[in-house]
């Protein structure tokens, strides 16, 4: 009973889209994505197209409760009723919390009459506004744009066609707006996204010489492993040759120099906002450095910031014994000081 109707007349829907794209409001929308007031501009446009009495942009927090970013229209009492039974909302179902793609939906008057009887959230809302239709779209990033009309006048076929074509774009525009306003530049966004994907130090490139961005500790990791930018460029170029030959999915190689810890370089393609980049990660192997059980105990205590004296007291050994074990650890790992050692993954 949720309706997303395809248009029967292809020429008619194309003409409607062209008219919408040429309007002053749509032009304003497309050219104001970086504007701090973009949410208000978007909602005004969304509501004016479909004649909604209330609309909002919201996201789900970690408790699966909505955080409203922007709202337009008179919806205070309606939302108060909704929040009292929010846990029963259809969008809290697993398939809607993190959908695989943007999903537009429409709850028409017939569906609303059913939901207001069987669902506590919508029953509470119907006690405030008896007649209601709802349309919106849900984004994979747990965001949604929702519009409500306080009547039983369903969206027309023309409006349903526009909703299916335009509304996914609206939520996508808002997603881009959040990226632009949350990060100072695209490099910051890429760094944030890739940091979520991987714990190791990494660098991102868009070609043999095009280093786009890198993790905060990447330069230190290069120094620790005596790795040069020329080494990295050679690794990228050899991997690109493999890709040209149709052999490229992910490539690994080992790197080691006297006095530095063993290292694995891994290059693989990644996609951010559908654009392809090359990610190189530097991974230190815990099994490559054979520490004794006592050396490993001392290493873990050192990583907590403890002094030699405190380590000795905890392990019931002398400070001189701690120093001797540390000297062995430094020799095995190639670390030059306690800071370098604490950043290694042993």
Describe this structure in words.
With 346 residues, this protein is an alpha+beta fold. It has three domains: 173 residues, 2-Layer Sandwich (Beta-Lactamase), CATH 3.30.450; 102 residues, Beta-Lactamase, CATH 3.30.450; 55 residues, Arc Repressor Mutant, subunit A. It contains 15 helices and ten strands. The strands form two sheets. Strands 2-1-5-4-3 form a five-stranded antiparallel beta sheet. α2 packs antiparallel against α3, α3 runs antiparallel to α8 and α4 runs antiparallel to α7.
CATH superfamily of the largest domain: GAF domain
Q: What's the N-to-C terminus distance?
A: 58 Å
The stretches of 5 or more residues where confidence is low (pLDDT under 50) are: 1-14, 244-249
Q: What would you say the CATH architecture of the largest domain is?
A: 2-Layer Sandwich
The CATH topology assignment of the largest domain is Beta-Lactamase
Number of domains: 3
Count up the helices.
15
Order of helices and strands: HHHEEHHEHHEEHHEEHHEEEHHHH
Helical residues, percent: 40-55%
Number of strands: 10
CATH class of the largest domain: Alpha Beta
Beta-strand fraction estimate: 15-25%
Supply Rg. Answer: 29 Å
Mean pLDDT: 76
Biggest sheet statistics = 5 strands, antiparallel
* Structural class category: alpha+beta
- Give the neighbour order of strands across the main sheet: 2-1-5-4-3
Shape designation: elongated
């Amino acid at each position: 009973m949720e309706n997303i109707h395809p248009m029967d007349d292809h020429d008619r829907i194309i003409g409607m889209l062209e008219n919408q794209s040429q309007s002053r409001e749509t032009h304003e929308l497309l050219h104001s994505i970086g504007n701090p007031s973009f949410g208000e501009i978007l909602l005004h446009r969304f509501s004016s197209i479909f004649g909604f009495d209330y609309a909002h942009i919201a996201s789900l927090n970690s408790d699966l409760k909505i955080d409203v970013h922007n709202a337009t229209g008179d919806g205070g009492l309606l939302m108060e009723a909704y929040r009292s039974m929010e846990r029963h909302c259809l969008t809290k179902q697993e398939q809607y919390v993190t959908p695989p793609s943007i999903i537009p939906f429409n709850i028409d008057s017939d569906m609303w009459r059913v939901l207001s009887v069987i669902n506590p959230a919508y029953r509470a809302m119907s006690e405030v506004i008896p007649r209601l239709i709802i349309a919106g779209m849900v984004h994979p990033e747990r965001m949604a744009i929702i519009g409500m009309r306080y009547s039983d006048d369903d969206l027309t076929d023309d409006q349903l066609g526009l909703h299916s074509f335009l509304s996914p774009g609206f939520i996508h525009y808002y997603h881009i707006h959040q990226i632009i306003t949350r990060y100072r530049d695209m490099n910051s966004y890429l760094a944030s996204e890739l940091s979520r994907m991987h714990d190791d130090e990494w660098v991102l490139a868009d070609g043999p010489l095009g280093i786009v961005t890198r993790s905060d500790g990447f330069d230190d990791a290069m120094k620790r492993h005596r790795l040069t930018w020329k080494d990295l460029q050679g690794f990228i170029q050899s991997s690109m040759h493999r890709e040209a030959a149709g052999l490229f999915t992910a490539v690994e190689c080992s790197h080691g120099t006297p006095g530095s810890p063993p290292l694995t370089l891994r290059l693989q393609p990644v996609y951010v906002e559908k654009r392809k980049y090359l990610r190189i990660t530097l991974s230190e192997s815990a099994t490559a450095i054979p520490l004794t059980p006592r050396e490993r105990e001392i290493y873990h205590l050192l990583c907590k910031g403890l002094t030699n004296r405190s380590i000795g007291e905890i392990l019931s050994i002398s400070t001189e014994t701690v120093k001797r074990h540390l000297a062995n650890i430094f020799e095995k790992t190639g670390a030059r000081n306690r800071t370098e050692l604490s950043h290694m993954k042993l």
